[in-house]
Amino acid sequence: MAELSGWAEAILFVPYGPRLRSYRKLLYQTLNPRATLEFQDLQIQEVKKLMKRLLVHPGEFLDHAKLYAGAVSIRIAYGHTARDFNDEFIQGAEEFMSAVSEAILPGRWLVETIPSMRYIPSWFPGATFKRKAEKWAKMTAKHRQGPFDYVLKHMIEGTAEPSFTSKLLEPADGSQVSESEKEMIKIVASHLYGAGADTTASIIQSFFLAMTLYPDVQFKAQAELDSYLTTKRTLTIADREHLPYTHGVVMESLRWHPVTNIIARRTKEDEVVGEYIIPSGTYVIGNLWAMLHNAEIYRDPCVFKPERYLGDEPSPDPAIYGFGFGRRVCPGSHIGLQSLWLVISNILANFEISKLRTSDGEEITPGEEYTSGILSRPLPFKNIIKPRTMAARSMVDEVEI
């Protein structure tokens, strides 16, 4: 289905080889640790908008997290500012991700088992898969080309905001970009939303759940923040090294309920592991949940404990596993971690998150329940989110959405 839908060269489906290495080179050029800092200002702008939305409509915090993550991904990819879910760039990206999610469902399409079915005409009875694929191919072409043309237009007009696409189309060394390179830039840029939006949103949503369930953790982080901050301001990535417990909250948000519980890899050649021979072409499943909940490495693994990363013998950084591993490790881990730090630290500094109460004053504890799809996120739950102080309210209220 991937090939029929025009995704054969998509970064998600292309096999390891020269093309994937070229894709990853493009990503590293713009998303390496140093380059990532160039996107901090836009991330902070979106964090401020997120906090304003929390102030105005606190009950919609799960949606606010998703809009923040989507808006950041779109701005990084194309320099376009998305203000709500009706934004055409976000709509196009969501449509694309929905199609991919449907296409890769195991056992969903008979053509995956009988490849010769791909030659059946789309009008033929039972060729629903062919009609779907044709629709998705047209949608994919539009999803790639429209935002790319947007960047080109603004570059010509001299109004383009720095982005993944604009930086690669206009290299700092002044070199010319070939047509084949432009095509690769277009393809990779179109995947930044899917790679960053859903994963970042899910982790932020888990953070909201953790702070609702673990008020003592929230209190400790806020005590650290209050001791460190001498004036009310927006925290930046430069503050991270001075706030170890708060950084631990970010790390634990990655580990506690991983966004992806398993990942698949395929062997390129025969592998010998102990007494076993794993033939070339075998799919090997990595169980990220088990790795991040190994009690020998993370004591009390089901408990949200930021202090596990402190002291003389800290637990391993969960990002080692949380962003995948091997040749297909997520190349956007630096920008993702920066985004999470900016969101979580600033929300903790400015907002109090607590459980709802009944009319009798009894706390309502939300369940620790998650979806079971390819990406795992908390099922909808309710809490109370309010500014910690009048100073925090005033600072957040000044933001224009």
UniProtKB/TrEMBL annotation:
Cofactor(s) this protein requires: heme
SUPFAM superfamilies in alphabetical order: Cytochrome P450
This protein's pathway: Secondary metabolite biosynthesis
This protein's record includes keyword Ribonucleoprotein: no
Residues that bind heme: 330
Transmembrane segments: none
Keywords: Heme, Iron, Metal-binding, Monooxygenase, Oxidoreductase
Family matches, as Pfam families: p450
GO molecular function: heme binding; iron ion binding; monooxygenase activity; oxidoreductase activity, acting on paired donors, with incorporation or reduction of molecular oxygen
Family stated for the protein in its record: Belongs to the cytochrome P450 family.
Protein name per its UniProtKB record: O-methylsterigmatocystin oxidoreductase
Protein species of origin: Rhizoctonia solani
Lineage: Eukaryota, Fungi, Dikarya, Basidiomycota, Agaricomycotina
